[in-house]
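Quick one from the shared queue. A colleague (R.T.) flagged Metalloregulator ArsR/SmtB family transcription factor as missing a structural entry in our internal table.

Convert sequence to structure tokens.
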Amino acid sequence: MDKVFKALADETRRRLLDRLHEHNGQTLGELCARIDMARQSVTQHLAVLEAANLVSTVRRGREKLHYLNPVPLHEMQERWIDKFERPRLRALGAVRRRAEEAMTDRPAFVYVTYIASTPEKVWEALTSADLTAEYWGHRNESDWRQGSRWAHVRTDGSGVEDVVGTVVVSEPPTRLVTTWTSPENEGREETSSRVTFDIEAHADIVRLTVTHEDLEDEGALAEVSFGWPAVLSNLKSLLETGRVLPQEPWDVPRTG
């Protein structure tokens, strides 16, 4: 228990646990992107949390994923809290959990498509400003390095940015994670949603999985549920045939 108390005594380590509670299974790069601290310092804090058994890690290929381990916290609660005020605290905890869930339960969207291509070409299609202009109608502009800014820029020459965000993870050609928000909300983390592109090769095809999380509400979910299939169908056509669809897919009338 001494290691647990020591680990919890530091604000940064508590923030790391909060981040894993919000989104479990993050890489070091993802955790660093949300903590204003050098990568080496974050690594040292994670080592303390691992030593206290508050964080466990799993290897996935070259990635090391970090997971919150709640067992020591549960043991601490049973030993130091529950035996004194168990009934009342549990009732209060249930009320708080319901309130927090109501405030933080933001919808997510997942879309999977299969493309006759290579991971390298799919990565290029997602990160090339010229190619995104061709199949998306916007130029996605960035150097695509972790921590860099990116922008979804109109192709009419106006330079207007309709979406901006930060590159959270950049692991070419297999994984790209970005935040999304409106230009007027740039810098306000609570307004951002999060898009993950997972690119997996299988023989001569690629499985592209797009996960759009932390959407504001059901209205935003409805918008991306219409928009992502249209954009990704255009991308698939471009990579497989060399040309986009003959009509812009997002102009097809919605039904239902």
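Strands lie at 55-60, 63-68, 109-115, 138-141, 149-154, 161-171, 175-180, 193-202, 205-213.
The chain is about 45% helix and 25% strand.
Added to the table.
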